[in-house]
Amino acid sequence: MLTDRRQVLKGLAAAALASTAGGSGLLARTAAPDLPPRPPAGAGRVHDWIFAAAERPVRLLGPDGPVTTVWSYSDEFLPIKRVRVGDTIRTRLENRLGEHTALHWHGVRVPNAMDGVPYLTQAPVTKGESFLYEVAPPDPGTFFIHPHCNESGQTGRGLSAVLIVEGDERRRPDADLVAAYKDWRLAEDGTWLPFETPEGASRAGTYGTVRAVNGVAPTTHRVPAGGDIRLRILNLDATRVIEPGIEGAEAAVIAIDGNAVTPFPLDTWRMGPAMRIDVLVRAPAPGESFRLIDYFSAEPWTLATYETAKGEARPKRAFDPAILYAPDLPRADLRNAQRLNYTFSAASGAVTEAAAMLTPDDPLAKILLDGLCVRDTSFWAINKASWASGSQPQMPPPLGLFETGRSYVLELMNATPHHHPIHLHGHTFEVLSASRLKRPRHFADTVLLQPKERIEIAFVAAPGNWMFHCHVLEHMEYGMMGYLRVA
Ligand SMILES: [Cu+2]
Question: N or C: the chain end with fewer CB closer than 10 Å?
Answer without folding.
Answer: N
